[in-house]
Amino acid sequence: MSRMDRERQERLKGILLERKRVLWSEVRNELFQTLGTEYNAQFDRGMDLGDRSLVDLIEDTGLKVTDIRREELTRMDEAERRLAAGTYGICEECGVAIPEERLALVPFAPCCVACQERREKPLRPLPGVTL
């Protein structure tokens, strides 16, 4: 591996690990600080059915956001495995280097933008075939 490749890998590693650290911090704060104090306060006063429904909705929304972050952390773990294998930052489809700007926005991105767009394109039915 050339010096430039090693420097790029170190920069990419920094991007990935910093984003992962921030996500873990957000998840911890939501679970332990926000939810913990809110749960205690909720049961200090009586609630009617409408109040309880609103509290349930807020709890579900908070848990869904936390679940989205957990999924993102799982993808980051996979990106760390690719980093250890030396394939992080390389498009899984075409094999070109994924721009660092893209990885700064989506550190777990497995593909370059062009290949990701191809992956996300809806499949067109064959002519004459109805679904």
Automatic annotation (TrEMBL):
Keywords: Metal-binding, Zinc, Zinc-finger. One of its GO terms (molecular function) is zinc ion binding. InterPro entries: DnaK_N, Znf_DskA_TraR, Znf_DskA_TraR_CS. A zinc finger (dksA C4-type) spans 91-115. SUPFAM superfamilies: DnaK suppressor protein DksA, alpha-hairpin domain (SSF109635), Glucocorticoid receptor-like (DNA-binding domain) (SSF57716). Residues 86-121 form the Zinc finger DksA/TraR C4-type domain. The keyword Metal-binding applies. PROSITE patterns: ZF_DKSA_1, ZF_DKSA_2. This is Molecular chaperone DnaK. It comes from Geobacter pickeringii. The lineage of its organism: Bacteria, Pseudomonadati, Thermodesulfobacteriota, Desulfuromonadia, Geobacterales.
